[in-house]
């Protein structure tokens, strides 16, 4: 069995959740699913580290902002130029996309 977060079994509600056995042993699918959207290794690595299940291993804000993704070419552009082109909220689209990447198997 893959142990990503051994302390999770000590959480009060963990034993009330029933997982399929194959889900307990499943490796992360983030890299596999993200390669359809980007080939940027740093971007995929940042997303994987931000979505790490174990909170002790997960990136905090400071470490995330210091990630190689933000310090490699092409450098980020001023968001004002990008945001000016949006005429509606992208929240719903992005939340559905992220949900499908994390929970589809």
Notes on the protein architecture:
The chain has about 100 residues and is mostly helical. The chain has one domain.
Helix content: 40-55%
Alpha-carbon Rg, integer: 17 Å
Number of helices: 6
Structural class of the secondary elements?
A: mainly alpha
What is the N-to-C succession of helices and strands?
Answer: HHHHHH
Model regions low in confidence, pLDDT < 50 over at least 5 residues: none
Shape: globular
Give the biggest beta sheet: none
**What is the CA–CA distance across the termini?**
18 Å
The counted number of beta strands is 0
The proportion of residues in beta strands is under 5%
Mean pLDDT: 79
Give me the secondary-structure topology.
Blueprint: H1 21-24, H2 30-34, H3 41-50, H4 61-65, H5 79-83, H6 91-103
Can you give me a brief rundown of this structure?
The chain has 105 residues and is mostly helical.
Key attributes of the depicted protein:
globular, 105 residues, mainly alpha, 40% helix
């Amino acid at each position: 069995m893959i142990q990503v977060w051994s302390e999770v079994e000590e959480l009060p509600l963990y034993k009330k959740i029933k997982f399929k056995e194959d889900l307990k042993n499943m490796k992360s699918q983030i890299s596999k699913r993200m390669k359809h959207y980007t080939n940027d290794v740093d971007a995929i690595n940042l997303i994987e580290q931000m979505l790490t299940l174990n909170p002790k291993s997960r990136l905090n804000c400071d470490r995330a902002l210091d990630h190689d993704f933000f310090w490699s070419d092409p450098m980020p552009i001023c968001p004002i130029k990008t945001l000016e082109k949006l005429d509606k909220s992208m929240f719903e689209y992005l939340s559905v996309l992220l949900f499908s990447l994390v929970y589809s198997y």
